[in-house]
Design brief:
Length: 120
């Protein structure tokens, strides 16, 4: 059985490559064949197929079979897991930025007080 950590590792590994991210972006608009997916890239069909296999192992796409055509389609569940994982860190950064905002306001207030004191 695959653990959540192993699924995240595979998903992040698949997303690490810009070609694979571009393939996923294309699949948001619907199913596509290897030939269609290869069009914007300067690489061979076998090279695109290797990228598709990585995406498929990560659970990010599914491959169908209609006669000779094997369309790929997006499966977003692993992306949901990534979003949930990163959500914890978003909260951390928002809280850090809120503390920084408070500190900067405090510094500005001190600066205004100092300026007001020098004007008198």
């Amino acid at each position: 059985m695959t653990t959540a950590t192993e699924r995240l590792d595979r998903t992040f590994g698949a997303l690490a490559d810009p070609t694979r991210r571009a393939i996923l972006a294309r699949l948001r608009t619907g199913e596509a064949s290897v030939t269609e997916l290869a069009e914007p890239f300067e690489m061979s069909l076998p090279a695109v197929s290797k990228h598709l296999k990585v995406l498929e192992r990560a659970g990010l796409i599914a491959r169908g079979r209609e006669r000779q055509w094997r369309p790929a389609r997006l499966k977003a569940e692993p992306l949901k897991e990534v979003a949930e994982w990163t959500e914890r860190y978003r909260r951390f950064w928002e809280e850090s930025y809120d503390r920084l905002d408070g500190y900067l306001e405090e510094l500005q207030d001190r600066g205004k007080e100092k300026d007001d004191g020098q004007k008198r």
